Every structure is written in C-alpha cells, then in structure tokens.
Known about the structure:
Blueprint lengths: L13 H8 L11 E4 L8 E4 L1 H10 L11
Antiparallel strand pairs: 1-2
Amino acid sequence: xxxxxxxPYTGLTRxxxxxxxxxxxxxxxRVRSISLRQRGQTKGVRLISYDSLMSYxxxxxxxxxxxxxx
Length: 70
C-alpha cells in the first residue's frame, strides 16, 4: 500500500486499493492481500499481491477505447 499519493505500478489511490481488498457487503475480495504484524500489535503492514492486482485490472473491460469506425 502506498503511504502517500498513488500506487507507483497502477496509479490507483490508497483508498481505491482498500476498496479492492475489502470484503464489505458480503462480496468476495477482488484482490488478495495480507496483513503482517507482530503478535499483540495493533499496527502492521498491508501487502497486496501484485499478480492478483494485475490480473484483476486485466480482466476489466476497456471502455472508452474504440477502434476506427467503418
């Protein structure tokens, strides 16, 4: 997760990345992540699977991009 600004690989904001990894509303998560923290600690580091994120982004339709009309 980027501390400040946008993800250097995708340009997505931190808040949008959180929506992709959250399982709110009972929907399955779209992107895999893991939280690393020491036992008894409340804070840790959230890691997002690069392969999972890129796979999800590749599966999205490319709207707004069209070829030449004939």
